[in-house]
Amino acid sequence: xxxxVQFEGKKKxxxxxxxxxxxxxxAVQQKFLIAEDTTLKVTDDHGIEVDEDVFPExxxxxxxxxxxxxxxxLPFAETSKGSTDFSDLTExxxxxxxxxxxxxxxxxxxxLQQGVVEVPSSPSLTDTLSVSSSLSSSDSGSQIIQxxxxxxxxxxxIKQILSSKPAGLTVIKEYEETxxxxxxxxxxxxxxxxxxxREKEGRAVSKGAKEFHAFGIVSLFPTLKDPYSKKxxxxxxxxxxxxxxxxxxxxxxQRKSRTSSTSQSRVELKGGPTLLRTVGALDDQRMGDECMExxxxxxxxxxxxxxxxKMKETFHYRQQILHDPQRSADVLQMFPRFxxxxxxxxxxxxxxxxxxxxxxxxxxxxxxxxxxxIQEARNLKETxxxxxxxxxxxxxxxxxxxxxxxxxxxxxxxxxxHLLTPQPAGRKxxxxxxxxxxxxxxxxxxxxCQSLDDHLLTTEGNPQPYLLASGTSKAQVSTFYIxxxxxxxxxxxxxxxxxxxxxxxxxxxxxxxxxxxxxxLYTFVQTTVYNIDIGSTEETxxxxxxxxxxxxxx
Length: 554
Known about the structure:
alpha+beta; Ubiquitin-like (UB roll); four-stranded mixed sheet
């Protein structure tokens, strides 16, 4: 499509493959050689401003000629329209008479990065920046730049972006009223910021700009900061892996117009249950023939003390087997006491991580997480399933007495699953499943009068473990088992939380990866509750965001 455009008295035709306001902006900048960081205003030939929503319709009018204006052409009152007096923020570079403005090019960025305080990259790595700094002269007459790209600047930048849009003001208002942002509001905020970045930098937004804006978000909205990540804003943008909410939105916007893609270098994160760990020295570890003798004894005794002693003595050897692809599937045959002696899963997990780490979930969930998870779920769109789970978690009477729900603790874990819904796993992996179906990957119920063998006959040989709850009803469970590869392992605990604790630990004890449907839930529990492999485990932005919300609730 050909579109007539006028800039500074010159008229030219611009050709667009698709009618897109952002593509139109980029084409205008290229045609008239306008710097990418220049703010453009588009009007029709009558001087009426043209916004993104009406542009496609006006562009179909062949008689239309769009007039392009820059900030330099606009009156001061108009260019400042929509700006806000940030009384609570120090305006960048306007704090004192001693402060001067210097222009920093890309060559100076290395100087900026040499400050004592680590600061984020600048909004643009391709254009110059106005940076406020104190200047001092050296013997050579050079000027030392003290970088002030700190949280005040980043926060002011984000607040100015949001304050310039009516939708952005609703984001600020919601945070001021609630101290947090709902998922829908967070998505709205991300959309506004990404649109601003693309308007300033065009299609190829630099990593530095994305990181700077991510830093600004958590500076303006501190309860969105993830206290367990290195910088606190990686769920909005992680420069190492090139992921996060800002990057996701950027890719969504660019998907149709992108003509070529460049491979991004990613830092591979390998933390989690399948990681081969270096375990500290343990006393009485058997090797060679002594190890074989201990394993032979384990095949012929069920004495509790003897079993636990020999399992400890063969722990290092068992770890070698678990991480040997040729032998890992045989571990339950080689150590059959897992199938009939309770407590061995927790025993091995404690040998891996220590007693203090092993006790964290049971100590923290009810006191620090359960109530916050329930509160957070109240902000979700209510479904019949979520309503039932909330009633069960709050111990309220169910609307359906014929089919009682699970107890309060199990329901709270289901609610966590509502907050960390199963995500599409990619083209080569299983499709996204519902929350209701995902709960069956976590726990299944069968009445105590039924045979365990009957259950195994009707189930597939899933290598990912799940709980099997036995009792008169879901609310009255007397025994829990862990089912893995059609093998049944008894749980030591008779409570929902205790059984889940053992289920989670079984992944590490047997070196089994998480079920795709429950990966976000297990990863959240691993890093946020147990604090295992923080920083070395791949986490979705959703996991990081939920952690930030819960840990910043008071």
